[in-house]
Amino acid sequence: MPAEGPPNRDTSAPADDATGPTDDRPVAVRTTGLTKRYGDDVLAVDDLDLTVYAGEIFGFLGPNGAGKSTTIDVIMDYVRPSAGSASVLGRDAQEETRAVHERVGILPDGYGLYERLTGRKNLEYAIALKGADDDVDDLLDRVGLEVAAADRPVDGYSKGMTQRLALAIALVGDPDVLILDEPSSGLDPNGVRLVREIARGHADRGKTVFFSSHILSQVEAVCDRVAILDRGRLVAVDTIAGLREALDTGSTVTLTVDAVPDRLTLGELAGVEDVAVDGRTVRVRVGDAAAKVDVIDRVRDDGAAVLDVAIEESSLEDLFSAYTGGSSTGRNARSAESSGAGASRADEADAEEADAEAAEEQR
Ligand SMILES: Nc1ncnc2c1ncn2[C@@H]1O[C@H](COP(=O)(O)OP(=O)(O)OP(=O)(O)O)[C@@H](O)[C@H]1O
């Protein structure tokens, strides 16, 4: 748990994304020394080096005003960088914008839909503009927009319906790189889940998803790696497990046993930092992920029957707070079978609920 506040940026925050995959996957998105100033006062993006690989779902996080949308705007050449460059699939974002746009589908933070046209017309227009041959009804079906709704003008749409239509437009032409900026905004829990499924399906076919969001449970559930931006600078980029490890946050294993053994030898185990016993509950703080299973085995070896196991890890929210200096609001408890495996369905439901609440807050 990153209780000590923000990490020392010089040591824990990589200067570039050297912690990323080292395989031969093609680079989908790259920024090099990307800097964007607005006037003399605002340094929106500060010397950003970022590499996103094909087939990744890449989370792009940061507090309000961190520079996320500006980075996306440069990638799409909606704004020009003050210094540095951005490229998509090897094409320079500023020099080869048309080629970039042919390969990218974007769900922007604020979308430019034709309000007086029907959803269907908007979609047909987007398909024609991209020279694609998508089936409109297929796309409507993929994003869960009913045909009857698609035939009504967009200015009568709810926020969620508008978001689903914008998502359908982003999917036109089955883009190699899908940029989703706050994709869950306004969506109900089913919509939130749908976004996750679409992102995962896209990546499973070797395509790339660039996923910018404040809904950290959503990011945690779907992203392979995340980058955290703070005041225009990259402060971390890694898998969520890697970020946990870098901050040395550890985890807590809570065991309910039939009876606590007279001689409990957990303290002898490598990786165990603290053991506390309360009635039939044994709470064990471990600094090393591998020690979690050892803890369960050792308690059994000491003679207890393990009735229940819960494992608490630092949530992405904790990590986000630690890297950006914000306040932390708690931990993400995960129940597990006594084998130590997997989050329960109840936890998934909780995550859905939290997503929906966060989406509601954004409305
Ligand atoms: N067109 C603009 N003119 C002047 N300043 C701008 C402009 N666009 C963005 N900024 C400033 O640049 C900084 C980065 O903004 P940006 O919108 O990229 O952040 P963000 O991480 O996307 O924030 P949020 O999470 O709130 O959407 C902010 O200080 C913002 O006020």
Automatic annotation (TrEMBL):
Residues 349-363 have a biased composition (Acidic residues). Residues 1-32, 323-363 are annotated as: Disordered. One of its GO terms (molecular function) is ATP hydrolysis activity. Keywords: ATP-binding, Nucleotide-binding, Transport. Residues 29-256 form the ABC transporter domain. InterPro entries: AAA+_ATPase (IPR003593), ABC_transporter-like_ATP-bd (IPR003439), P-loop_NTPase (IPR027417). Transmembrane segments: none annotated. CDD domains: ABC_DR_subfamily_A. SMART domains: AAA. Residues 10-21, 333-344 have a biased composition (Low complexity). It comes from the Archaea. Belongs to the ABC transporter superfamily. This is ABC transporter ATP-binding protein. It comes from Halorubrum ejinorense. The lineage of its organism: Archaea, Methanobacteriati, Methanobacteriota, Stenosarchaea group, Halobacteria.
